[in-house]
Amino acid sequence: MNRKWLVVCVLAGFAGLLALLTLRKGEARQFSSAPGKGWPVNVAHRGASAQAPENTLEAFRAAEASGAGGLELDVHITRDGEAVVIHDSSLNRTTDGAGLVREKTLQELRSFDAGYRFTGDGGQSYPHRDRKVRMPTLGEVLEEFPGVTVNIEIKEAPPGGEGAVLEAIERAGAEDRVLVAAERLAVIERFREVSGGRVATAASRREIATFYLMSRLRLEGLLRPRYQSLQVPVDFGRREIVTPRFVEAAHGRGVRVDVWTINDAPEMQRLLDLGVDSIMTDRPAVMSEVLEGR
């Protein structure tokens, strides 16, 4: 993130406000039933990604064992239309492969080691170096963890790629335990359209900027959120995002505040005292200890 992005988002917020004020009067409001209801506080960011290779089944298993109530993961669409779990658009940072995910088939991606470049806390190598760590599909994660809520961020999807994400969700019968996010408004709007509102979604960057601006002006009551969650960092540059006013405004509109990525116990405590609903962390075991202490 950088200051340029904030300026763009604030300007987009003004544009969004104008659009919101022109909504027809009869449009239904779409609020969640209650902030945080049914959604875990302890959400493992890319799994227990300080303990095992991020966005792999190994990291998600470690997260569940550490007491995480939910998993956060990232999705890209392959050349043959499969939804695979990986953060970057490129293979270079986390695997022994190279090139763009969208240019590879699922079979090609299976040949790479998703844990090849992983080093955990203290720089040690991943202990299971005797075997490759496979990049999972979204469907595999949803099916292996049937009782776990999953936060799915669509990092990159061509028009129509949202259908692959929805298909994996529906095949696993996971409509009621997932939330889909995307930074780009166009991507999340396409998902909302294809899913018909049957799957909860988070606000896009533009929607977050609009909400932030309106909350500062104490005009959030004019908004009609189409999302159930505002997923935000604590601050952006020198500007504090997660404030008592922001949390109050979100809860007043029936929207959760989910904060990323927090690995420090005192900061977890502070945010919980502010009333945030969910904390995404690379260290779910630390978050579990904080919650037990409360």
Provide a brief overview of the structure.
This protein has 294 residues and is α/β, with parallel strands linked by helices. The protein has ten helices and eleven strands.
**Gyration radius, to the nearest Å?**
19 Å
- Beta-strand content: 15-25%
Describe the global form.
globular
The CA-CA distance between the termini, in Å, is: 32 Å
Low-pLDDT parts are: 17-34
Structural class: alpha/beta
Distinct helical segment count: 10
Largest sheet: 9 strands, mixed
Order of helices and strands: HEHEEHHEHEHEHEEEHEHEH
Relative helix content: 25-40%
Name the assembly state: single chain
User: How many beta-strand segments?
Assistant: 11
Please give a structural write-up.
There is one protein chain. The chain has 294 residues and is of the alpha/beta class. Helices cover 35% and strands 16% of the residues. The chain is built from ten helices and eleven strands. Strands 1, 2, 3, 4, 5, 6, 7, 10 and 11 form a nine-stranded mixed β-sheet that branches. A two-stranded antiparallel ribbon has the order 8-9. Helix 9 (265-274) links the parallel strand 10 and strand 11 (278-281). The longest helix is centred in the N-terminal third of the chain and has 19 residues, at 3-21. The relative contact order is 0.16.
